[in-house]
Amino acid sequence: MISMKQALRGALALVLVFGVLAPTLVFAATGDVTSIEITNESPRKMSVSETAKLQVMAVIEGFDNKQDVTEGVTWSTSNAAVATIAKGKVKAVSAGQATIFAQLDGAKAELVVQVQDKIKSIKASPNSYSFVKGSEGTLPKVTITRANGKSEDVTSEIVWTVSSSSAVLEDGKIRGITPGRVLLQGKYGSTTVKVPVAITDVITKIDVTPKALQLNIKKSKALKVIGTYANGKTINLSKQVIWTSSNNGVATVKNGTVKTLTEGQATLTGTYQDQTITVEVTVVPLLKKLITGQKKLVLSPQGSTTISLMAQYDTGKMTVVTNSAVWTSTKPGVATVTNGKIQAVSKGKTSIVAKWGNKKVSIPVTVK
């Protein structure tokens, strides 16, 4: 049988238990709000037309952790012409500054919002990457241009992410893990810039075609570059090779295409990964026509004469090519020719033909 003392001790224990638990349950439902704060970054920068969802956290008596009370807050703004607030969503209206107020049970919090002109464009430099797996590159510089025409460097404020595990972001750099294509995305507020990244395997050698070429002034020629991987597979690198010219005044290369400017010579050097290739370029003026000292000739048998041959180029340049041209006679029995010297043989008619480069000229000769 339980003694009276034991029964009282048990009843007192129950009273103590409920005496401890009951206040806690009451405070959890109706506890006083000690303080609140808007957890978003302050001051917050926004662009015209941009919206953002705000969150309010409160310290409530009876709770060990801060509680999300966003839904129960009363909102207001110091300048609705600059920024409005409704149900925790702030909207940027026009350029300027406004303070957003939150109030709950006598506790107040505020957030300063700086609104700038709408972003017209966002650009990353470089706007694409291509590197070997295991290597890395510094994250791009990002510039925005606002509707008022002003440009801003927002590189330090960009939040970067990558589209796949083929690349990772580490200490302000992007590093390739496995070969593939990755999209690097940078976010500035609600504006996003996208930078494609190509991660390639190791190239063991590269070859270029042609290795030497001759072009006229103001002409172009595409170069073909083939890379070979360690496993023997090949890839077209024509537009990925980085080229430099020993003489930019003579010839340049852009996107794998050679463009000539003036007469002369230049060595083009291409690099990709650790491989190097070269192309020798000779730029010559375009031969327009051949000009002779005589348009027609009349000779006596055994008579002779020498005519000169000039090459005329598109630059206006004239060069004597008499001794380097190829001379022929259509009827050697009437007259022969050697280096521009015509020798009459017998009566009749013939044509003396001079050929140089891709041009030729004919001179009618009569022997009588």
UniProtKB/TrEMBL annotation:
Descriptive protein name: BIG2 domain-containing protein
InterPro entries: Big_2 (IPR003343), Invasin/intimin_cell_adhesion (IPR008964)
Keyword Metal-binding appears in the UniProt entry: no
Keywords: Signal
Keyword Ion transport appears in the UniProt entry: no
Residue span, BIG2 domain: 32-113, 118-198, 202-282, 293-366
Family matches, as Gene3D superfamilies: 2.60.40.1080
SMART domains: BID_2
Signal peptide stretch: 1-28
One protein family per Pfam: Big_2
